């Protein structure tokens, strides 16, 4: 059920928030492909952007530094506490991507950076439909996720007990689901796993028809 995965995801990230932020900073420093993909997204959006599943605000802050007018939402109050300290000039709100607290077509861009990975298959169309709903016609959507077919259940990391399921998915399948949600993909970037990673990484750039 949706409430089960939401509760497990929220409590897990609450426990790991501070350590996750430090880990994420180090990871971002060694990811030039991700930086280039986010830079492309930033260059295309013209108007407000929503970072859905923003976590501790790592990507939010990066896009903010690139001049993007951005806000963030996340399920975890603990992650949001860190995000507000990381990026005090940005508005952050607690929310589930299954029911975003925003009006239709409120944003010129939406980024979901490794946040759909915890959404079970049966709830994924709802999540993608919500991303599409708050996106303006002509707006851009950026999705990042791990490539694969089998989920991974993580029970501990960074010295904390966790209950997180990571759903790895194929880019063509995610592109088909985005098209069904009304946001067809026009750029697909896939990089192979680097040292310390178990899977490749995919980045889809989609655009809602004007």
Descriptive overview:
With 210 residues, this protein is an alpha/beta fold. Helices cover 38% and strands 28% of the residues. The chain is built from six helices and nine strands; from the N terminus they run H-H-E-H-E-H-E-E-H-E-E-E-H-E-E. It has helices at 2-29, 32-44, 58-65, 77-86, 124-133, 171-180; strands at residues 49-52, 70-74, 92-94, 107-113, 135-146, 152-157, 160-166, 185-191, 201-207. A seven-stranded mixed β-sheet has the order 3-2-1-4-5-9-8, sandwiched between helices. Strands 6-7 form a two-stranded antiparallel ribbon. A hairpin with a 2-residue loop joins strand 6 (152-157) and strand 7 (160-166). Helix 1 (2-29) runs parallel beside helix 4. The longest helix is centred in the N-terminal third of the chain and has 28 residues, at 2-29. It is globular and about 45 Å long. The protein starts with a helix and ends with a strand.
The residue-averaged pLDDT reads 92
Rg over alpha carbons? 16 Å
Low-pLDDT regions: none
Question: Biggest sheet: strands, sense, closure?
Answer: 7 strands, mixed
Order of helices and strands: HHEHEHEEHEEEHEE
Class per helix and strand makeup: alpha/beta
């Amino acid at each position: 059920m949706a409430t089960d995965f939401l509760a497990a995801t929220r409590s897990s990230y609450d426990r790991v928030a501070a350590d996750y932020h430090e880990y994420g900073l180090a990871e971002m420093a060694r990811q030039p492909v991700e930086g280039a993909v986010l830079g492309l997204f930033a260059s295309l959006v013209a108007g407000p952007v929503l970072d859905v599943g923003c976590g501790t605000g790592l990507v939010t802050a990066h896009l903010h530094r690139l001049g993007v007018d951005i806000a963030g939402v996340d399920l975890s109050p603990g992650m949001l506490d860190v995000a507000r300290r990381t990026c005090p000039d940005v508005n952050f709100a607690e929310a589930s991507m299954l029911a975003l607290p925003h009006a239709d077509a409120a944003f010129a861009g939406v980024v979901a950076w490794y946040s759909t990975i915890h959404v079970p298959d049966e709830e994924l169309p709802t999540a993608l439909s919500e991303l599409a709903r708050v996106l303006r016609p002509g707006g851009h959507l950026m999705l990042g996720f791990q490539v694969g077919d089998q989920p991974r259940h993580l029970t501990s990391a960074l010295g904390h007990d966790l209950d997180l399921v990571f759903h790895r998915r194929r880019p063509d399948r995610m592109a088909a689901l985005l098209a069904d949600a009304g946001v067809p993909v026009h750029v697909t970037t896939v990089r192979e796993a680097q040292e310390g990673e178990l899977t490749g990484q995919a980045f889809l750039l989609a655009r809602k028809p004007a």
